[in-house]
Structures are given as structure tokens and as C-alpha cells.
Amino acid sequence: MIPLIKTLSHPQKAIRFFISSILVIFILVVSMQTAAQQVALSREQVIALTSEWKGERLPDGRPNVADNLLARLKNISLEEAWGVLRNAGYNNQFEGDWMILKPGQALVGRALTVQYLPKRQDYDNAIKAKGKEESRIGGFNSWPIDMLKPGDIYVADGYGKIIDGTLIGDNLGNSIYTKSKNGVIFYGSVRDTEGLEKIEGFNAWVKGYDPSYIQEMMLGGINVPIRIGRATVLPGDAVLAKKGGIVFIPAHLVADVVINAEFIALRDMFGHQRLREGKYTAGQIDQQWSDDIKKDFLQWLDQNPDKLPMSRSELDVFMKKRTW
Asked: Among 16, 35, 108, 171, which is most buried by a count of CB atoms within 10 Å?
């Protein structure tokens, strides 16, 4: 109460406080009305949502994480990626317990996020009318497919609905792969699994399979923040999906995750080799390394350039900043 009393004791400050408050409320109301009048967030809105990303962007505003980083990400373990994110303060980026169409194949890409909701007639009418105005074709579950670019992953919150919650079958699955050369992640279900399995290169992480078709669901929005189980996902997040689960990586942290995880993997490779050789004890490798072990590791890197997943110059820059 004290700041408010002090403000009101000065008429001019009180007037400015009142005008500022009204302006903030007006902006919020306009923003909510704008969001309700569109199917997908605008490029400007997506940029504002992902403002910590400073690199190139896709036409819809999503961060365009480089293909070479995504390729390197595919070789990183879930635990390594998760650990780097936790150290950076991102504690809610993992979801496990999936049914995987092709368990032996990992999936990486950029998230195109989609929110689905239980059907409510007035909102469903409004979103379909807006889709028609925007010349969107077909059912609302196909609208995100038309927006996919190569390297994208269709990531949808289907709020865990299995029966009558099947977001795609094999027809839409073929369309998704044609557009993205990638797969899907649905906190929901799919149908036509035998047909989906026949799509070479396509993969899916889902919560269930069912022969039913989609009913009593509606589209909430495209390229909006969504919840996937215990994880929060933003448009353009990098996705690392493997047998053990999925890590959703904020775009601005992908490079850090990759280089840190690759360095940890190199340390482990060196340490395992030296333990097998009997050169060091487990206690020596598991604790803070001595200067002799550090020197040995640097020499090992020089002797094994083929084992480096990054360039040596990139590794040198990284190691100058790292405190082992």
C-alpha cells in the first residue's frame, strides 16, 4: 500500500499512474481480441514470444535453428541435453512414457506447435469462420500441415484424448512427411498405424492408437505456447525425441546444449578408454581432474581428430570458457 499512497499524494504522479494503468489494460484487451481473431499467431507475435533467439527466422517468425545443429543434436543423449537445460534453469522440458511408431529411429526438428481443446460450439464456430476467411482448406487438424516446412515437427497438445482424439491417419501422415520430411509428436492419438508405418522416414511419438476418428475436439491455435505433459513448448523449439522420451530445447539454447553435450561425450569417451587401459582409477576420473589428466586429455584430442563432432576451433573456443 505504501507505494500507492505515495503516488496518490502527488496529483500529477497520480494522473500519470492512472493513464498508464488504463493504457496497459487497453493493450491487454486489444491483444486478447487480436489473438481470438486469428488461427495462428502472427510473425510479429511469434518473434515477441521467442525474443531471446537472435538468429534467422522462418517466414512465420519461428526461430530457424540451423540444420547442422539439428544433425549434431540427433547424436546427443536425452540425459546430456536434459542436464544442460537443468543447469540453465529450464526444469520443465522433458516428457516420457510414449508409444513410438518406429522405436529404433530418433527424431529431431523444429516445433510447429498446435493446441487442441475439447469442443465448445461458440469458439469452434469462430475459429472455423476465421479459417474460412484465411482460405484454409479441409479439416482444422490439417491446417497446421499446410504450414510445415522441411525440418519441422508437428507438435500438438491433444490433451491426452485417445478415443475420438485421433489427430491424423495415414493420408495426413503422407502429407506431413511430404511437407516436412519429418514426423509428429502428439499428446493424443493417431489412427491407421499400419499405413503410417509404411511411410519411409516418418515417425510418431503419441500417447495411444485408436481406430476411431476425431470428434468433439476443436483447434485452439497454431504456433502458440503449448503443454506436452510436464513440458512447456514454444514454436521453434528444437525437438530431440528418442526411445526414452522427448526433450524440448528453447531455440536460443540449442548451440549451448549441443557443444556442452558433445564435450561431455568426449570426456566420457576419453575417461572410459583410460579406465580400460588401467591408466587411472575410477576415483581419479570421477572427481575434478588433475592437471596431468587434463594435459593427457588435450593430447588425446590431438591424436583423435576423427572423434570430434565439432571443429577443433569451435572446441578450443568452448574450452576457454569452460572450467572443466
From this structure: 108
